[in-house]
From TrEMBL:
GO terms for biological process: lipopolysaccharide core region biosynthetic process. It holds the Pfam family Glyco_transf_9. This is Glycosyltransferase family 9 protein. GO terms for cellular component: cytosol.
Length: 303
């Protein structure tokens, strides 16, 4: 059994698609898998069971990246092809069953749209595949002898970024209720991510710097050791939810009805105003703290 799985360019969308891939692997254990995705998301699939190859699709003019993908895939016979990008590539390959998700953005949960492409009901939750090396590295960064609260102050669009000055009053509320807790600041590679994380690291001098230099699976392994994640609507938020830890997503001008974190212990809060239009600066720190504390209390007795 050979499966071709074409998924997203953006990290968040790629994470949301992992539940579909996991469902395929559960149905076809031992299948050989090729994943095609954008460069930002490629590391997410490093430990997929039965992985033969990750094809990194770098956007080219005139959509030539799709031609590159076709050239890489056409020599093979595929038993199942899944195209969550809605392209014509799989129609030009020697394939058995084809699953193609048509259409662009639409109302409703993204996870349900992905699941519908394969006739899955209910929609499977996202997952993440970790290696022993990932877990060992994470154990060297995130201690196990105290509750660690992960904070994600970054996003790929500044309009989704909750003002960084809110993290100090948020942490004051959290640490009052959980005196032994310690913050860990998560962010991705690159100067924009580092610049958004820097004020939070400076405001919380006891914080663990958990960003900028780790692979996606290492980051997921670190998140999996945390007691809670609080952060903007971002790929990191979706990655945290996929690990199964309590996850609180912060929303302003993005739509929680489409992109709320999808995990067994996930919640979200949104700034007041029309969905998709509300400035995230209107989301008060005390609202976030109250929801975060409620989530902590609901998921584990206070320590």
């Amino acid at each position: 059994m050979r499966i071709l799985f074409i998924t997203a360019t953006r990290l968040g969308d790629a994470v949301l698609s992992t539940g579909v891939l996991a469902a395929l692997l559960q149905r076809w254990p031992g299948a050989r898998v090729t994943v095609a995705c954008g460069p930002v998301a490629a590391g997410l699939f490093a430990n997929v069971p039965g992985l033969e190859r990750v094809i990194t699709m770098t956007k080219r003019r005139h959509d030539l990246h799709w031609f590159d993908l076709w050239k890489a895939c056409v020599p093979h016979k595929w038993d199942i092809t899944v195209d969550l990008r809605g392209s014509a590539v799989t129609l030009l390959l020697h394939s058995g069953t084809r699953h193609i998700m048509r259409g662009g953005r639409r109302p409703g949960r993204r996870t349900e749209h992905l699941a519908n492409a394969l006739g899955l009901n209910p929609a499977p939750l996202p997952t993440v595949w970790l290696s022993p090396a990932d877990n060992a590295m994470a154990a060297s960064i995130i201690p196990s002898d105290q509750p660690i609260v992960a904070l994600g102050p970054t996003a790929n669009w500044l309009g989704k970024v909750w003002p960084t000055q809110n993290y100090l009053p948020l942490w004051q509320d959290l640490s009052t209720a959980y005196p032994t807790a310690r913050p860990a600041i998560f962010y991705g590679p690159g100067e924009q991510e580092a610049a958004l994380a820097r004020p939070v690291l400076a405001a919380l001098p006891n914080a663990i710097d958990a960003g900028g230099r780790f692979s996606l699976t290492q980051t997921a392994a670190m998140l999996a050791r945390c007691r809670l994640y609080v952060g903007n609507d971002s790929g990191l938020m979706h990655l945290a939810a996929a690990t199964g830890i309590p996850t609180l997503g912060l929303f302003g001008p993005s739509r929680a009805s489409e992109y709320a974190p999808a995990g067994p212990l996930s919640r979200w809060v949104a700034a007041p105003g029309a969905e998709g239009e509300a400035p995230i600066a209107g989301l008060h720190a005390d609202t976030v703290a109250h929801t975060a504390l409620t989530l902590l209390e609901q998921t584990e007795p206070r320590t």
